Structure to design on (411 residues):
């Protein structure tokens, strides 16, 4: 076997704080794409892995789902957390491979198909209007992330699930702790249990919701999950609560990060904000560009089921690869001027939703939410500017802005 390519720049992937410094982070990714697109990474506290930074290689791995499996290591966490997650028995869609993945995905698939999205659009548009009105009520200045961006998608996904509004704050807290356990602001205090505590609390909540929906079914996604049957048998407890957890968490944090990051991109590129205001017909391409620009899911992991090769680099059976979506979405071989935010970019072959059999189940909903929100906000926006320094979350999985102070005038 040829010598492994090792480039120190690839250590950024296992450095949560690196994701909070986008300039330095993207400089490292640009270097890796040019000099070490498949790089071996060994850092303390993490199991080693290959970092994959080119768009074409990410796509090739995603296509080869029989060679590269999600199990047993779908996300990059510490070796200690790898063991903890395995011990809890967590089995969300991102932990599964076919044929189990295909069967489980079908449980909720109908709720995210075009027909369901058309039925949901009225409610999504209404929630967009409500949250822009809340900006107006804020008096011309707010933390756009914490007062707007995190709440709007939360209301959408929790309404879809059927979670009562009184429990929305709890769900927000738990999802922020799940994806923010590498960030000093969001992670649990050391004396409040380990990083799995938030997950276990979410499991407890959804176990009770399952029991309620099985006893008294209603017309919501929670009831569909609670009463689903595979081969005539209901989902077991772990399968049920795992399904809720991935819908609740992934359906919220990713969209809120994109809305917040999209807002910052428009602030930093006032010509594009003006262009979008002048031509609302660009909203669909603007939505895709925001998703590419932010790329809220930073990486997924895959494990080689057999000896294989990625870009002429041998990858042995049992070794893991990290698919860097932010790097793929700035790949110079795919995107013209990739570091330019362009609301009219077309084509836009971003990989922010993944690709292949694991393509994001909620992609259509995320697109609709982003489109609806900015379609409501921009025509009412008279002026907007930064009122402080934007701050990003430290993470190795899902993240984006955690604070975006803005000053604005709305009509």
């Amino acid at each position: 076997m040829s010598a492994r390519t090792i480039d120190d720049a690839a250590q950024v992937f296992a450095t949560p704080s690196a994701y909070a410094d986008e300039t330095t982070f993207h400089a490292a990714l640009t270097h890796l794409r040019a000099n070490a697109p498949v790089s071996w990474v060994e850092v303390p506290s993490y199991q080693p892995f290959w970092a994959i930074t080119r768009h074409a290689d990410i796509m090739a791995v995603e296509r080869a789902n029989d060679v590269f499996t999600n199990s047993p290591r779908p996300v990059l966490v510490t070796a200690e957390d790898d063991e903890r997650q395995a011990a809890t028995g967590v089995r969300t869609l991102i932990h599964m491979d076919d044929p189990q993945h295909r069967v489980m995905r079908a449980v909720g698939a109908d709720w995210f198909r075009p027909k369901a999205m058309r039925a949901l659009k009225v409610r999504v548009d209404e929630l967009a209007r409500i949250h822009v009105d809340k900006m107006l009520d804020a008096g011309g200045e707010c933390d756009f992330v914490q007062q707007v961006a995190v709440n709007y998608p939360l209301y959408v996904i929790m309404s879809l699930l059927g979670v009562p509004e009184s429990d929305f704050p709890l769900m927000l807290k738990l999802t922020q702790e799940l994806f923010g356990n590498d960030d000093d602001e969001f992670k649990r205090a050391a004396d409040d249990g380990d990083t799995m505590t938030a997950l276990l609390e979410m499991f407890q909540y959804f176990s009770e919701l399952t029991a309620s929906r099985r006893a008294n079914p209603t017309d919501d996604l929670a009831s569909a999950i609670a009463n689903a049957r595979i081969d005539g048998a209901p989902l077991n407890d772990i399968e049920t609560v795992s399904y809720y957890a991935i819908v609740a968490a992934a359906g919220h944090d990713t969209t809120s990060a994109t809305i917040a990051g999209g807002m910052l991109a428009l602030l930093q590129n006032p010509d594009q904000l003006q262009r979008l205001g002048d031509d609302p017909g660009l909203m669909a391409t603007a939505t895709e560009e925001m998703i590419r620009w932010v790329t809220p899911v930073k990486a997924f992991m895959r494990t080689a089921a057999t000896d294989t090769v990625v870009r002429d680099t041998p990858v042995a059976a049992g070794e893991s690869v990290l698919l860097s979506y932010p790097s793929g979405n700035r790949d110079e071989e795919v995107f013209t001027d990739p570091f330019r935010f362009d609301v009219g970019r077309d084509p836009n072959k971003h990989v922010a939703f993944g690709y292949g059999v694991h393509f994001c189940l909620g992609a259509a909903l995320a697109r609709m939410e982003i489109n609806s929100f900015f379609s409501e906000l921009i025509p009412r926006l008279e002026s907007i500017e930064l009122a402080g320094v934007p701050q990003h979350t430290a993470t190795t999985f899902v993240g984006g802005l955690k604070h975006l102070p803005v000053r604005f005038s709305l009509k």
Notes: The longest strand covers residues 299-304.
